[in-house]
Specification:
Elements lengths: L1 H28 L4 H22 L10 H16 L4 H7 L5 H11 L3 H29 L14 H9 L1
Helix pairs in contact: 1-2, 1-6, 2-5, 3-4, 6-7
């Protein structure tokens, strides 16, 4: 029995590292890519759920709106299953888990040091993306367009053009 407990404890430590890494990925990807952001928080939520099931004691978890969020999740799953296009609806079901990110952060970011580090990483990532947008604007001027935006000008380029 002791070997099982040690293995469970080791798996919980690995899952904790996965959760922390996914939270940092969530923060970094929040200004870079929505798909990567969603992947990061789904990985963190799955690791958190597995870790909670291994712990067995969920009384320490703070989930004040569990019933309404669970009802909404169940309604969303039922709507997905009964949809005219269930596969397309299944792809959009990942957005339902966004509400659970709040609970994940409340339960995992428990120290001021971790919160400060996450905020600093967010600020640095945001600054780098802003500098990247400014460099595009200065390099290409107001005529820069992204291939993903059907010829629309870059937002930063439009803003700088208005300021001139």
């Amino acid at each position: 029995m002791l070997g099982h407990r040690d293995r469970s404890h080791r798996i919980q430590q690995i899952l904790q590292r996965v959760i922390v890494g996914a939270l940092f990925g969530y923060v970094v990807c929040s200004v870079i890519s929505i798909t990567a952001l969603q992947t990061a928080y789904i990985v963190a939520l799955v690791a958190w759920a597995i870790r909670l099931s291994l712990q067995g004691d969920t009384r320490q978890v703070r989930v004040p709106l569990l019933l309404p969020v669970s009802a909404f999740g169940l309604a969303s799953v039922l709507a997905t299953l009964l949809a005219v296009e269930p596969f397309e609806s299944l792809l959009e079901l990942r957005n339902v888990f966004e509400a659970l990110v709040l609970y994940l952060i409340v339960n995992q970011v428990t120290t001021e040091a971790r919160a400060t580090t996450l905020v600093r990483v967010l600020m640095v990532t945001t600054m780098l993306m802003a500098l990247y947008g400014l460099s595009q604007s200065l390099t290409y001027g107001g005529q820069f367009s992204s291939p993903r935006h059907d010829g629309q000008q870059n937002d930063v380029a439009q803003f700088i053009r208005l300021c001139r």
